[in-house]
Structure of SET domain-containing protein:
Amino acid sequence: MNKACSSLFLSFLTISENEEFGRFYCYDGHDEPSSSDSTQIIYRASDNRKGGTSPRIGTLLLKEQPNCFCVSEEQRSRICNYCFREKSEGMKLSRCKACKYSHYCSMECYNADQHLVECKALQKHPQVTNSMRLMLKCFLSCKTVEDVEKIENLSPKQSMKDIEDLKQLAILFCDYVKELDLSISLIGHRKTDVDYLYLLFQKIQRNTFSICNDEMNVIGSGLYVHTSLFNHSCVPNCTVLFDSKKNIYVRVINSNIKAGEPLTINYVDLLDVTPNRQHKLDKQYHFTCQCPRCTSTVNSEERNTHVESMLEMANDFKQKNQLQEAINCYSRVVSKKKSSPKLFHDIYLGIALNALAHNYVELGEFEKAYHYAVESLPLLEQYYPEFYPILGLQYLMCAKLGAHLEEEKHHQARTQTTSSFTPNISSQWFQKAFPIFSKLFIHEDNTPFDVLRRNQITF
Ligand SMILES: C[S@@+](CC[C@H](N)C(=O)[O-])C[C@H]1O[C@@H](n2cnc3c(N)ncnc32)[C@H](O)[C@@H]1O
């Protein structure tokens, strides 16, 4: 029942012809699922490690290029809209003179992005949303029957329920593209078919990945048709990462995956309380998560709307670059929690401490940043898996800040005659960061050392 996989999968992955649910399972090589199973892709654990059923941490399950992608609105003047390279002293970006919207590093990127088609639409509709731009890119990517099949096979196969904002989006999209020549696309003739567009928008809503840079900041969005077959869990055993060429990598992050267990990634931020995660999963992905964390009756994670509005206010200040005001809001959350520990869930404290650390880095107040980053760690360790990219970056941030503070103290010690020696505070965090980087951040164009180097916080 299993057919061989395309080259982007490693050989131990096989694809079943049953496409009903499209879940990936860990497979021990003995207990082959029957054809009535919903299993779509199976991980042959026994091929990877003799005698064991669980793949090792860091095992690469698949690597894939995006079928279509677009740069995020906030990043469009900072990175090339096709190759996603960052603007730097050695690399200039030119803004398209016609639409004044898109930026490219070269004519090759301008042409490869098929910008001329989009340019016409952007000139008339500069307020376009990311999902509309991604939809147009999706149209442009459909050049063969196979390309069309890949998109049409994405979940859901049929329109599921009335989603008013997606219906509106379908209507807006018709207007966006009505004057464009989309004859190069095999689905171009459907550019104003509202029902078809509504279904495609549902697929885009459920299957789009945020493309992140090394620091896990979102720089774009894309469709990756194979990776999007992974289901979600709030206790995931796999994670996705990106390289600088927008390739996605799915790697194992739990060394205790049993045969028959689904292989999962997370669709929403894990540093959030259960009702909020569930709400997001329901709204965007239309399912109720039944993972151990969501169904736990032991550690209930309740919402606190008062704290949430304070965090939201802080976030608004941050967006407007009013960092000190944002810091005041986050600090109020921290002090409320310290004065009444049971008032709201620890997760909110984790969010506030983490935000304080990042805000103080931006303000150049590194001692405070270090203090909050270290204080946030036990909470991040509780809600993120042990081998998780964001956790690795947090350890790295502590290490870099620690190293900077040590350096400053040594400098003071050299210039003053009396000073105490500074303990080596940074190495403990480097030691924690390194296993995560060496197992997860290992892309074709990267060694973990490159990533560590690129992630240096510049002081
Ligand atoms: C990106 S797709 C994942 C692959 C999909 N299951 C398929 O077979 O094509 C997202 C959709 O999968 C389903 N899904 C993902 N994780 C799930 C879970 N933990 N429980 C139930 N449904 C899930 C939901 O319908 C969701 O909208």
The two ends are 57 Å apart (CA to CA).
